[in-house]
Design brief:
Blueprint (H helix, E strand, L loop, with lengths): L9 E4 L2 E4 L19 E8 L3 E8 L4 H12 L8 E5 L3 E4 L33 E4 L13 E4 L5 H4 L5 E7 L1 H10 L17 E6 L2
Antiparallel strand pairs: 1-2, 3-4, 3-10, 4-9, 5-6, 6-8, 7-8, 7-9
Length: about 200
């Protein structure tokens, strides 16, 4: 996957927030056939922190969950990091380039109201959702974020594809937000300080 010039990787001003990345996607809404349904449980282990358990809702966001589970089953996230931390807002990870510019090879359709898709999942504390490329609604690949605070709803609901919730391990998100230092105003973490995602597994 070719790396492009960065485009406003993460903008957080006043109450408005944009979670994005800059990447040249190789696919176009890939993986939309044979979509999953129902609920899926996923365990995400963060080195030196513990396990975050997630309950994914494929009925609310079938394209997003199908893509995420596919990447999980392929081991894509194993060894990647949490590269962005914004206390009181979100933690963000899933970038193989570790700087907010990378992703997987396939882009997917954004499942949220601004893109004409009904998705009633709210960006409350514990929500997991997909980052995307600026104003391109169909540019999400692998980067995800987990919401730390309910106040995120105002800037994220209807604009990003929420696809599940943390059911156990929010204290890990809180610890990362409290302990991990950032190097700039958009929450980028220096590579040597990025919490490592040891593994992500579907709980069958």
């Amino acid at each position: 996957m070719k790396k492009c010039a960065k485009i406003a990787a993460f903008v957080l001003a006043c109450a408005m927030a944009v979670l994005s990345f800059s990447a040249c996607g190789a696919g176009e809404n890939g993986g939309n056939e044979n979509l999953l349904s129902g609920y899926w449980t996923v365990d995400m282990e963060i080195e030196n922190y513990g396990v975050i358990r997630l309950r994914l809702d494929a009925d609310a966001a079938p394209v997003t969950v199908t893509n995420f589970v596919k990447l999980v089953r392929g081991g894509f996230y194993d060894g990647l990091t949490i590269h962005r931390v914004v206390p009181g807002f979100v933690i963000q990870g899933g970038d193989p380039d570790r700087d907010g510019t990378g992703g997987s090879d396939e882009t997917i359709k954004g499942e949220f109201a601004a893109n004409g898709v009904t998705n009633d999942l709210a960006h409350v504390r514990g929500a997991i959702s997909m980052a995307r490329l600026g104003s391109d609604y169909n540019s999400a690949t692998s980067q995800f974020f987990i919401v730390q605070d309910d106040s995120a709803r105002a800037s994220l609901d209807g604009k990003y594809a929420c696809f599940g919730y943390v059911t156990d391990g929010m204290e890990i998100v809180d610890r990362i937000c409290a302990e991990v230092p950032v190097i700039n105003s958009v929450g980028l973490v220096a590579e040597e300080n990025q919490p490592v995602i040891t593994s992500v597994r579907v709980v069958e």
